Amino acid sequence: MPVAMLPYACVLVLLGARTAEAAGAAGGGRLRWEPRCQHPLPDRVPGTAILPPRLDGPWISTGCEVRPGPEFLTRSYTFYPSRLFRAYQFYYRDPFCREPAHSLLIKGKVRLRRASWVTRGATEADYHLHKVGIVFHSHQALLDVTGRLNKTRAGQDCARRLPSARAWLPGALYELLSARAGGGCMAALGLTMHELSLVRMQRYLQPQPEAASRPVEELYLGDIHTDWAERQQYRPTGYQSPLQSALHHVRPCPACGLVARADVHHPPALPARLALPLRLGGRWVSARCEVRPAVLFLTRAFAFHARSRSWEGRYHHFSDPACRQPTFTVFAAGRYSRGAPSARVRGATELVFEVTRAHVTPMDRGTAAMLNLSEPSSCGGPGAWTVGTERDVTATNGCLPLGIRLPHVEYELFKVEHDALGQSLLFIGQRPTDGSSPDTPEKRPTSYQAPLVLCRGDARDPSGPPRHEPGRTAPRGRGPDPRAAPLPLLALVLGAAFLWWP
Ligand SMILES: *[C@@H]1O[C@H](CO)[C@@H](O)[C@H](O)[C@H]1NC(C)=O
Ligand SMILES: *[C@@H]1O[C@H](CO)[C@@H](O)[C@H](O)[C@H]1NC(C)=O
User: Fold this and answer.
1) Residues 194 and 335 in one domain
2) Rounded to two decimals, what is the model's pTM?
3) CA torsion sign, 222 to 207 to 40 to 445?
4) Is residue 386 in contact with ligand 2, taking CB distance under 6 Å?
5) Are residue 279 and residue 253 in the same domain, yes or no?
6) Does the CB atom of residue 146 touch ligand 1 within 6 A?
């Protein structure tokens, strides 16, 4: 999750007239969304997909990324005109990517195939790995990896290829995969490069104060399954947070130069960051059109009321990757628990969310017709559905055709960060890739979705102390909850009744 990811919608807002009415979000009343907060991106955000993608060149993480597990890493991938590529993955011990543990050098070849039939707007690719090597940056890092390998049979075979603690040479590169070594170590370590099999490129203009806008190019690669055991088989249908072109990235970006200059022997240590308390009060919106695996396009908008610990969310669903053709909107509301620091994911806060009310608005004829045909007791009771008209589905315990069940509880993981411009970003837990819901503590996420941005004018939680309270890292128990979206239409098509989010 790029720290410096500066969502263009919000850049526009940031740079727009500062008429901020100070935070109207407190209180338990109904949301009065500012128009720009309601539809953060669709119409006016001119991001353009580049089709077919042009991979050539260097691509980098813009901040510390978190993968399910959790794993903390940064990436620097270079694609050559010959279709060869060289990828560095730098892994860390800490959630700020300051203490490198080990790094991977991955070489291979990638070939773009065709437009994806599953994920609209994506291109499918084939790849082949020639060589994978690992460098340990400390003794401890070596022990961590071999300790993990020692737990399985295949892992023990692989561990024999790594040095013993005594024989380890700092700086040495050990082969995990090569023509000679075979590929057994990759699986044993849970490594795959399936992310290369789904690709999307996007370009947009980042407005600059007092200067011409600059282009930013993003490379979206396939998502990583949230269940470790599924990683080897899973073929991506969604994306990770994007890499950016090392030549055309957002500015400022303190991490970009460091990542771009790094190599497998010199991993980047990212600049120190302030640990921010989780202050959820205010309204948070998607910075862009989001894609979920399995495959939905949506934008989210949330309001958290710290005093009453209640929340409301709107999930706008679309049928296209630019989020221009709406299909339906879900309004959901409920309460959330006091937060507690996560033991598993340092720097994150655990919360429990409850969804007790929901409304549905069909936004196209297809969805309205589908709801018209559904059993009235499964979604909203008797009465017709028409495009653009909201109906309350609380009394029917949700809306099964859309995968909404009430009441519903979710175990969440949240964190707040600032990007390089000081904009607040809210990260909410990634939904399980299998489409299920994190409805037990064991299923609580260990990684995040794309961040939400705080609406202008909400920079202060009216019910809380100022944001930069030094020395406070423990959350005050506000939690938010946004997350993602349900599995709606697809679930329907497959005849499965499904789960969702908040
Ligand atoms: C892994 O297992 C081998 C052989 O059983 C042992 O020598 C080694 O110390 C173990 N390594 C770790 C880190 O547990
Ligand atoms: C849903 O049913 C109502 C009443 O029967 C009808 O007026 C409306 O056109 C239907 N909508 C769709 C999209 O079929």
Assistant:
1) no
2) 0.83
3) positive
4) yes
5) no
6) yes
